[in-house]
Amino acid sequence: MKNLLQNPNEISITGAIWIERQDGTDRFLGKGRIELLELIVEHGSISKAAKAMEMSYKRAWDLVNSMNSQTLQPLVITQTGGKSGGGTLVTAEGLQAIDDYKVLQNRFQAFLLQENQCLK
Amino acid sequence: MKNLLQNPNEISITGAIWIERQDGTDRFLGKGRIELLELIVEHGSISKAAKAMEMSYKRAWDLVNSMNSQTLQPLVITQTGGKSGGGTLVTAEGLQAIDDYKVLQNRFQAFLLQENQCLK
After folding, report:
1. Which of A5, A105, A116, B120 has the fewest Cβ atoms surrounding its Cβ within 10 A?
2. For residue A71, which residues of chain B lie inside 8 Å, CB to CB?
3. Quick check: A24 pLDDT over 70?
4. B residues 59-118 lying closer than 8 A (beta carbon) to A
């Protein structure tokens, strides 16, 4: 491949992975959804997480609903009232989803690193 | 991951890889560009290849120009006149680009297959 190029050292192999329904009707997890979950952990709020990603509040809710609708237990829960005045929490299942995705993402990065090192 | 899901057997890991400039200013090759090259081989015409992909002629030309501008030798050449009345050819370098990408794509598919087999 590199023998074809004017600037062979300026290119690299990159990519993305995600987890989706096999029938293609919906995604379950991808880089954006994981970033959203992490920002909900950080901010305790879907609206603040959406803002941090420059994403609309509606879009963020749609993503959260998509994830929650596919799991046995919700990944994100919204509490109203109570002593703390409510808030949004990423559940233990949500934290596991983040961790599992990151393990997968790390192996994908290792794959890309190896392919880039071998790229001729 | 699967332990979280209502329908654990309906999900799979998928993804995409592409080759781009490290500074992010342009892509060199990806699935769509390879499909375009293959269709130019098949049809001997950028306009017919574009039509087969439901892509505008302008978009197809832009992609061809992007690839050609990054290589030492063009991947696609357009001949005008001559006995055959002109036509568009994918060069030996273009054919190599297709082959090299497919080898990479096959290794990526093997990676995804293995990850899907191990997905818990």
Report:
1. B120
2. 4-6
3. yes
4. 70-73, 75, 93, 96-97, 100-101, 104, 107-108, 111-112, 115
Model-level ipTM above the cut of 0.85: yes
Best of A6, A13, A120 to disrupt the B interface by mutation (most B CBs within 10 Å)? A13
Find the CATH number of the domain harbouring A88: 1.10.10.10
* Domain carrying residue B46: 2-118
Q: What is the least distance, in Å, from the CA of A35 to any CA of chain B?
A: 17
Radius of gyration of chain B (CA): 18
Supply the pLDDT for residue A27.
94
Around A30, how many Cα atoms within 13 Å sit in the side-chain half-sphere? 14
DSSP string, B35-76: HHHHHHHHHS-HHHHHHHTT--HHHHHHHHHHHHHHBSS-SE
Chain B residues close to A104, C-beta within 8 Å = 13, 115
Structural domains of chain B, count: 1
pTM comes to 0.88
